[in-house]
DNA sequence: CGGACTTTCTTGAATGATTCAAGAACGCGG
DNA sequence: CCGCGTTCTTGAATCATTCAAGAAAGTCCG
């Protein structure tokens, strides 16, 4: 579980103090892409022992603010975190099981960044969320929610 | 204020029973695009008198399921509803004040619907959220966040 | 290397949107 | 006008996230 040896480097590079909880949280996000806060808390506790959920929430906020992790939150889902930052990629979310997968922008660069009518907004990011069914849920007979 | 006379028609067209709460909620969504649940509750009570929040939540779910309204929920925001459905449009969200505006897809049809690598997902919708600063917040020096 | 200052972690409780449950009221088809 | 089934009311519960205050730890400096 020496997950990422450069976790410390990353923290220092972001001018953040290096504490055990922070290293563990960052490593957990690297190891479990798209994990929700609760999963991260579990992963952190598995490697460090008891850690307060408050500390994890606090660390996640600090890491997000520092740009080391990205927070995503599809409608109807709790907050999730991922370590891929800086590159322009989006997500596919399964309507049935909530699974999330990364998707690189189809049109390379940042095409969607140019809205037809921006209403005077100064747009700095375009976030795309694809909705559908994951492979597992497509083959399996629709679970509940029939009409 | 009988906002939209065809509210009943819309409800019947969706095979939904026409009740006063439903008509009021639907009218409220038409009148207040991108309003959150609490605002809708307020608007409904302004026209009908006391109505339980539970009823509004229930109605909003029914209307959403029927496709009469669309539910949107940008990260860090509560659920919001809008009446524009069926057309392929997206949203710009102000990072400062949370204001939301409609934006028609820059590339006309549904370009983004084709992800570069869909990971086997059966994609049926591409939702785009633009993030930036609204005109008011761009000109005004960052308003601390007091409220 | 040690001390002091600042940031971060712990503990415990609160907030707030949304949902669940059970019974009463109402809309709709007959 | 009646009865059935859906929908509204009331009241409480859930759960992610946040707030607050004090203890502990990290970093900088001499």
TrEMBL record, chains A, B:
Zn(2+) binds at residues 94, 97, 134, 137. One of its GO terms (molecular function) is DNA-binding transcription factor activity. GO terms for cellular component: cytoplasm. One of its GO terms (biological process) is regulation of secondary metabolite biosynthetic process. Its main location: cytoplasm. It is found in: Cytoplasm. It comes from the Bacteria. PANTHER family: TRANSCRIPTIONAL REGULATOR FURA (PTHR33202:SF18), ZINC UPTAKE REGULATION PROTEIN (PTHR33202). This is Fur family transcriptional regulator, ferric uptake regulator. It comes from Nocardioides psychrotolerans.
């Amino acid at each position: 579980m020496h997950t990422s040896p450069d976790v410390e480097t990353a923290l220092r590079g972001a001018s953040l103090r290096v504490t055990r909880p922070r290293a563990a949280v960052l490593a957990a996000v690297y190891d479990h892409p798209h994990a929700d806060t609760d999963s991260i808390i579990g992963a952190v506790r598995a490697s460090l022992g008891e850690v307060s959920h408050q500390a994890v929430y606090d660390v996640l906020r600090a890491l997000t603010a520092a740009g080391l992790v990205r927070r995503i939150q599809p409608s109807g889902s709790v907050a999730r975190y991922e370590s891929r930052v800086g590159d322009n990629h989006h997500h596919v979310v399964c309507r049935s099981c909530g699974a999330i997968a990364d998707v690189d922008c189809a049109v390379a660069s940042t095409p969607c960044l140019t809205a037809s009518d921006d209403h005077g907004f100064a747009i700095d990011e375009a976030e795309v969320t694809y909705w559908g069914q994951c492979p597992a849920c497509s083959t399996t007979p629709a679970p509940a929610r029939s009409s």
